[in-house]
Amino acid sequence: MDLLDYRHQMDEIDDQLVELFQRRMNLAGEIAAYKKEKGLPILDAGREREKIKTVCSKVAPNMRNFTSVLYSSLFELSRSYQSQQMQQFTDLSDQISNAILNTTPLFPQDVSVGICGVEGSFAQLACEKLFRTPFVLYFNQYEGIFSAVEQGLCQYGIVPIEHSAAGSEKKIYDLMIQHRFCVVRSVRLKIDHSLLAKPNTKPEAVREIVINEQTAGQCTAFLKSLNPDIQVTVCENSAIAAKTVADSPRNDIAAICSRSYMEMYGLKSLRTSVQDPGNNSIRFFCISKNLEVYPGANCTSILLPVPNKPGALYKLLARFYTLGINITKLESRSIPSRDFEILFYLDLETSIYSQEFAQIICELSASTEEFTYLGSYSEVI
Length: 381
Fold this sequence. Notes:
By secondary structure, this protein is of the alpha/beta class. It contains 13 helices and 16 strands. The strands form three sheets. Strands 1, 2, 3, 4, 5, 11 and 16 form a seven-stranded mixed beta sheet that branches. A five-stranded mixed beta sheet has the order 8-7-9-6-10.
């Protein structure tokens, strides 16, 4: 036989598989109707385990792993279809529906907002991009922002979640696990770093550059191009870098930071755009104490634990693939004192008004006890 003969046989088998798959899904629909009438849950984990064990015993040893994956996928598809047929709603889906109805159509402007850092920081620029006349409260640490929002001391908080060059802000992910809050907006700022110094400083005279760790990760090419004799001093944040240069009596010291600090500290730019080439940006979350869902929300962030065993993540991702939901970010974090679970953070791209969104929220909240819905929002660029 040649390749065409093999493919012809494969096509005949596929025709049978399609027919059998349709029959199986129709039966799953009838089972869903029965479960709905009797008030039974969709998931029967014991039944699924026994079924996989049985079918795997009927195939050759070298095919058992493939068979297990096949039936795990079939179970995921069946449960998703049953959930759709049963139209189950959870407390969370009701909360989201109420938030959509009760949130004002316009994003508020005259509010109190907590940020980390000082005036002129990227966080303040993000704040000003979202709010027209905010009353800004400055905090030394991100923990203070989360606590202030949680306790109602400020209405919103602005926290960095991701640097396109340096990666995710891991401190924020740890705080997201510890605190209760809701994401109501995200904003992305283009990074533009300059080399700033006192007005009478000449570029060739610079012998020390002050920079914070995140900024250094965004300006690696420029830093590598420097004369080896130039000292690079790492500080806590960009505001401190600029202030250090402004307060220093020396004329051979400079800072790499945002141009927004020039006027504030009376500095001048020795060189602009010293960041690495590419579309470098910082993404911020705007968080609130209460769930607010504004019109046009098409991004959703969630947290959920996944067992630390083979195939667990595959099964989770299969749910989103089945519904055609795009995952734009997937981040894992270990759970302290729990060796057998990993916490995953996901950003989803789907309209909050879509049937697919409602179904995935209902499925996850009904089947995963520690599922955390962080909020649905739109992103400002």
